[in-house]
Design goal:
It is built from 12 helices and 12 strands. It has 367 residues and is an alpha/beta fold. The strands form 3 sheets. The protein has a 7-stranded mixed β-sheet, sandwiched between helices. A hairpin with a 2-residue loop joins strand 6 and strand 7.
């Protein structure tokens, strides 16, 4: 049996008529930059997140860079980032002229370990970037307590957590500012790159809008040095239709996750651990196994595609010039054990049970 890792066609064909109609409308009006669909999406996404402002930008990395710039943090100041995340989080810090300080993550959920943050704080620390990885929120209660104690800004990286909640609040709404990616493979993904920034702060909203659009809010209203990073109207017209089904699709992912949880052998497989204060949106379903590379190879031979998020913790990447690479014990262990299984909306129960049966047999034999 062949089991793909992702299915990017399902969402489109579910709402094909609506998307095609919107695309035809944008093309017919020649309203490619800005436009009514962008304004409508920004409004509806802000309502969805229960926040005042949403700014559509070119991609998730730009969203992070613009968010950092908008906070006017001291040049060369330090920003704390978890070791286990996509490189974009760390890239954004370095490209913004700030110094990156890595902090350890939890073994059980791969998220920023809140008990390891304070010993990373110095007089130069200006912000924390909690990454809500795989679709689960970090412990924002503790992070906000630390940020308040040391007067630090909080930038929530929500690139993998559309539709995730912490204590009833949507991710991205608890810190000073939140960032999203609308890359095609995300739970809420467009047809190409796209990103978003959310905030309740009127001033930050205006600054982010100016930065993303050549320093202006209106044509020729250039007040600051900006850049070109805009979510185009075509992508917005797609995202607005997908947004209306996002909760349904996330429920389907949760059903698939429960099916995995009930059928995988926890004696040999470390299953994802869910924080009781969180609602998981399961962008990824990530397990931990011994002999990961061998297990992955054997799964591939059985037609089962998998992923690794991520094969190297960022503290070990030479481009960041981090000392004491071995001190991040948990991150280094995770990079050798984590394995992402297929969990998309359209995967059948039959295929999930097949994955479970094959995987259970493999890990039992090779543990």
């Amino acid at each position: 049996m062949k089991v793909d890792f992702a299915d990017l066609n399902y969402q489109y064909y579910t709402i094909k008529k609506k998307i095609d109609k919107n695309l035809k409308s944008v093309i017919g009006s020649s309203s490619f930059i800005g436009g009514s669909f962008l304004k409508k999406f920004e409004k509806e996404f802000s309502i969805y997140c229960n926040i005042k402002y949403c700014i559509g930008v070119g991609n998730g990395t730009d969203a992070l860079e613009i968010a950092i710039e908008s906070l006017n943090l001291p040049h060369g100041s330090e920003i704390i980032v978890p070791t286990n995340t996509f490189i974009a989080t760390a890239e954004a810090v370095v490209r913004s002229g700030k110094k990156i300080v890595f902090a350890e993550v939890n073994y059980n959920n791969n998220l920023l370990n809140v008990n390891k943050i304070e010993n990373k704080i110095s007089k130069k620390t200006s912000a924390i970037i909690p990454v809500h990885l795989f679709g689960q929120s970090c412990d924002m209660l503790k992070i906000l307590e630390i940020a308040k104690k040391y007067q630090l800004k909080v930038i929530e990286d929500c690139s993998q957590s559309h539709g995730a909640y912490f204590k009833g609040k949507h991710v991205g709404t608890m810190g000073d500012i939140g960032t999203f990616s609308f890359y095609p493979g995300k739970n809420l993904g467009g047809f190409g790159d796209g990103g978003g920034i959310i905030t309740n702060n009127f001033k930050l909203n205006n600054i982010c809008r100016r930065i993303s659009n050549h320093g202006r809010l209106q044509k020729f209203d250039h007040k600051i040095i900006g850049r070109n990073s805009r979510l185009d109207n075509l992508n917005a017209s797609i995202l607005i239709e997908k947004l209306r089904l996002l909760n349904k699709w996330i429920k389907m992912r949760n059903i698939n996750a429960r099916l995995y949880n009930d059928n995988l052998d926890s004696k040999y497989i470390d299953l994802p651990q869910l924080n009781k204060d969180c609602y998981h949106s399961y962008h990824l379903y990530v397990i931990k196994v011994n002999k990961r590379n061998l297990v992955r190879q054997l799964l591939k031979q059985k037609g089962i595609a998998t992923g690794i998020h991520y094969p190297e913790s960022l503290n070990k990447n030479k481009i960041f010039n981090i000392n004491n690479k071995k001190s991040f014990k948990i991150s280094n262990i995770l990079s050798k054990k984590i394995l992402s299984l297929p969990i998309y909306e359209s995967i059948s129960k039959k295929k999930i049970l097949y994955v479970c049966r094959v995987l259970n047999e493999i890990v039992k034999e090779h543990h």
